[in-house]
Design goal:
mainly beta, YmcC-like fold, Immunoglobulin-like, 2 domains, 13-stranded antiparallel beta sheet, four-stranded antiparallel beta sheet, 2 helices, about 60% strand, globular
Length: about 350
Amino acid sequence: MRYLMIVLSCVCAVAAAGPVGDYLGFDQDFMRAGEHQETLYMHILFPQERDSFQYIRTFDTTTIAAETLYEGLPAWVLQLNLVQDTTQTTMLDTAVEYGDSLLRLKLVLPEKILDTTLWLNLYQVPFQVGQWWEPGLAGTYYTDVDGNGLPDTVDIWGDTIKVLGQEHVTVPAHRFFDCYKLEIFARQSLQMAQGPIVTHESSYVRIYQWYKPGFGWVKDSVSIDAKTYMYVIGRWYHMSDMVVKGTGQLTGYSGAAVREERRGRIQLEPLVVRPSPFTGRTSIILGQKEPANLTRVSIFDRTGRLVRSLAARSSLSWDGRDSDGTPLPPGVYMVRTPERSCLVTKIE
């Protein structure tokens, strides 16, 4: 299940400029906040027990690390930073524009999860309600998933992406109208060998994504149902069932104006927050090109929660406290105006 979660979760992290990337609006860095909860039902050792919910809070950023060419086609190297609780993971992907209606992704994952490269047919644009396609994830993969030095087998099939309809979506970053709702579905079978014991896991993964044409990804949700069986002394045992639920929302972005129309047409000076990382106090420099009606500067934590609102001036400072004057914990925060945003790190 972990293998398929990582691969499919990267689908919404693609950014490229060109006919498809322009339509999807992936022309700047963006941030997302997510939360997952897991429920585990044990059948063999503790048949009546159910683990309590485990909440895993995540905060992701995606940046364009480099521009290059891949087989003569424009390509972009993407850096994905995933902060899960106190652990940070960095992955590099390569997005390639292929034709005028298809975006492909060269995906390279950590060796323990995947030791090969995938070409995925991610998006066909413009979106039309009712259309569907196969992303190309189906197949058999051999890798050491559990890290015990023995080869494991991953089978994926039934992978499809469908455009279900259009909806209005409100997230911490903005309110978006007429977003396209996409459904991503796949099945996975994972078999791991540990000497004479074989563990088999079967799971269904269903992801919903909301996209605003000309802007990009704004929200997603994931649902995973998995069953685990163990083969011991000539017999299969039903070990456990697991249910995973998760959500992700757009919390901020940088590099272009926040507009319902296509981005990138209005260029603004970068929002400057320094020092970062900071202790005690940091300065927020707005510059000279902010709209005349700008009155407030908002600060969000990594879950997208508004923690402080400051009166807008050309230069102001933040003392690392919330609106009640309580010191906020160390971590990554987003400083945002209606036009721009910037990340700042508090270290104590």
